[in-house]
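Suppose a colleague, Dr. K., hands you the sequence of a protein chain of 191 amino acids and asks what its three-dimensional shape might be. Before reaching for any lab equipment, you can write down a predicted structure in token form. Begin with the sequence itself:
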Amino acid sequence: MKYTAVKYKTPLVVAATAVVIAACALLWYALPQNTQIYAPFEVRGTIGSPTVGRGITATVTEVQIAPRLGAQRTGGPIAAAGMWVVVTTGLDAGASADLARAELLVGPNTYAYTERLIAGPAFLQPGITQRRAWAFDVAPDVLDAAQSVALRIWVGDARLDSRLVIEVPLDNEAVHRGDSIDVPPLVAVAG
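The predicted structure, expressed as tokens, is then:
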């Protein structure tokens, strides 16, 4: 057997390689980010109406805004670095027990709830409705510029799962402003 060498034209190979690399680079930059691939599915709702997602149902019933939290349950008043925004919600678990998490969107900012209150974790169990208050310390200038806030609630990891987004217009009749907020205690009622 006799082998014959195939001769390649070097400029043609270099040009083809450059085209393939450029196409791969364009494809790489067009791929979605992990935050887009593993993002939660938002379920939108409004204050006063139940918002239902997989694993959780939430109803925002009241929002209070004040510079300090009352002394009723905390052993003394707690001043905010900005303004306290306390969102009272009714929560129901889905088919299994899970830990609920929440954050507040005000303008371009996202706020985590304070753990300074002795309310315990939001551990939800099927068949038990939990009424709880989430307290957020919000920058006053951001709050003054906002026309609404949105409470985001989810259970578990929230990636590839539903996340409730409950819109609260600040001119709603269930939004109250004052000098101090007495945070309601956690209440669990068998449904």
